[in-house]
Structures are given as C-alpha cells and as structure tokens.
TrEMBL record:
Residues 4-74 form the Transcription elongation factor GreA/GreB N-terminal domain. Keywords: DNA-binding, Elongation factor, Protein biosynthesis, Transcription, Transcription regulation. It comes from the Bacteria. Residues 83-157 form the Transcription elongation factor GreA/GreB C-terminal domain. This is Transcription elongation factor GreA. It comes from Kerstersia gyiorum. The keyword Cell division does not apply. One of its GO terms (biological process) is DNA-templated transcription elongation. One of its GO terms (molecular function) is translation elongation factor activity. InterPro entries: GreA/GreB_C_sf, TF_GreA/GreB_CS, Tscrpt_elong_fac_GreA, Tscrpt_elong_fac_GreA/B, Tscrpt_elong_fac_GreA/B_C, Tscrpt_elong_fac_GreA/B_fam, Tscrpt_elong_fac_GreA/B_N, Tscrpt_elong_fac_GreA/B_N_sf. Necessary for efficient RNA polymerase transcription elongation past template-encoded arresting sites. The arresting sites in DNA have the property of trapping a certain fraction of elongating RNA polymerases that pass through, resulting in locked ternary complexes. Cleavage of the nascent transcript by cleavage factors such as GreA or GreB allows the resumption of elongation from the new 3'terminus. GreA releases sequences of 2 to 3 nucleotides.
Length: 158
C-alpha cells in the first residue's frame, strides 16, 4: 500500500479517534449487544440490530484508521524549509481578488482534510494551484462557479 501523507497534528487526531473507538465506543457497543441479547428473541429485537450495526461501523472505522496510521508518512510543517513556497503542510493565507475576502488554509493529506477546520486536501484544485507558489503570487483556480483568482498573502510552516 502506498504511503499516506499526513501532518503530525493529523496523526495525533487520528490516534485520538482510534483510542476513543477502542476504549470507549467498542466496550459500550459490546455491552449494548449483551443487554439486547438478554432480552430474549433476537429476530425482532431492534436494539440488538442497531447495536450490531453500530458495532460493524466501529470495527470498520478502527480497521480503516489502523491501516491509515500504519502507512502514514508523517510530515511536520514546523520542520519544513519551503523557502517561502507553498508545500504540503503549509498554512496559506489567500485573498479572493474579486470579493477581497481573505481565508487561511492548511494544505493536508486527503485523509485529514476538513473544510470546516480550514484544512484542504493537497489534491484539491485550490491546493494544486497553490503548491510551489510564494507570497505575492496570483493563482488561477478553475472552480465550479468559474475561474477564480487568488493572491497569496502569506505562507507559514507551523
């Protein structure tokens, strides 16, 4: 399996989720299954079915996280020397030249991308346009709403 690029903080978040699933969620669902089993006839026991479904989700997520973490290529942005260029793990402030709205994004791996937390995937159109550029550069992004132009205001490796 190919290496999966992750930031150091992304690895910490995934490890915390894995720990939560193994130490809290898994024992809770096992207890719920046992309680539902104790109620008797399993063929029409909705609580048992729901608990088994939840167990399947938890076990699947645990396997997914373990696979991701075992193939992780950890990149610590604070140790990068990107010489002012946008690279994986960098935090970039950009300004939409049309609306003059500024936004800050961290460029992360596909697994840890979360737009609500301003972490965008390295494979996203915006990140692909930014990679290799420096503060002051203007980039064009072909977005669903049309061509957008952004100016890179700053690049940090934190």
């Amino acid at each position: 399996m190919p290496a999966i690029p992750l930031t150091a903080s992304g690895v910490e978040r995934l490890q915390a989720e894995l720990h939560q699933l193994k130490t809290v969620e898994r024992p809770t669902v096992i207890a719920a299954i046992a309680d539902a089993r104790a109620q008797g006839d399993l063929s029409e026991n909705a609580e048992y079915d729901a608990a088994r479904e939840r167990q399947g989700f938890i076990e699947g997520r645990i396997a997914e996280l373990e696979g991701t973490l075992s193939n992780a290529q950890i990149i610590n942005p604070s140790e990068l020397d990107g010489e002012g260029r946008v690279v994986f793990g960098a935090t970039v402030e950009i300004e939409d030249l049309e609306s003059e709205v500024r936004v800050v994004y961290q460029i992360v791996g596909d697994v840890e991308a979360d737009i609500r937390a301003n972490r965008i995937s390295v494979s996203s159109p915006v990140a692909r346009a930014l990679i290799g550029k420096s503060a002051g550069d203007v980039v064009e992004v072909n977005a669903p709403s049309g061509l957008k132009e952004y100016e890179i205001i700053s690049v940090r490796y934190a």
